[in-house]
Amino acid sequence: MGVSVLGFCLFVLPDLARDAAIQNPEYAYLRYPVVYGLWTPLIPFLIALYQAFKLLMYIERNSAFSHASVISLKYIRNCAVAIIGIFIIGDVFLITQNALHPGIGLLCLAIMGASLVIAVFAAVLKKLLLNALKIKAENDLTV
Hints:
The radius of gyration is 20 Å and the shape is elongated. The protein has helices spanning 2-23, 31-39, 42-60, 67-96, 102-142. With 143 residues, the chain is mostly helical. The longest helix has 41 residues, at 102-142.
């Protein structure tokens, strides 16, 4: 998944931006800011994807109930919040330039909504995991 998104951002996105700049010369000055603005959320996305992979490895090794899992969930939540922030900044920038197409705005809203769901889900899982670790520690002390 990460390789396909990385390939899309590095190889397809610049060509799409070039074609859009040719078709709409009045917005050609936004070509590079938009491309860089779409490359920026790639960093937290790949970090979150790596943390999700680490979390799956913890589950596979039967060590899902550990503080390392809590840290991975914290990173995933923070990366989702960062993606939301980056897209909000990008939308505000495009609105100030009178260049936000409604379709692109809806796509940004969909990405921000998905990121919000992931952030909330990771936060809830983190809280539940911390409670489970607390109960596990209490049980280990009583036995």
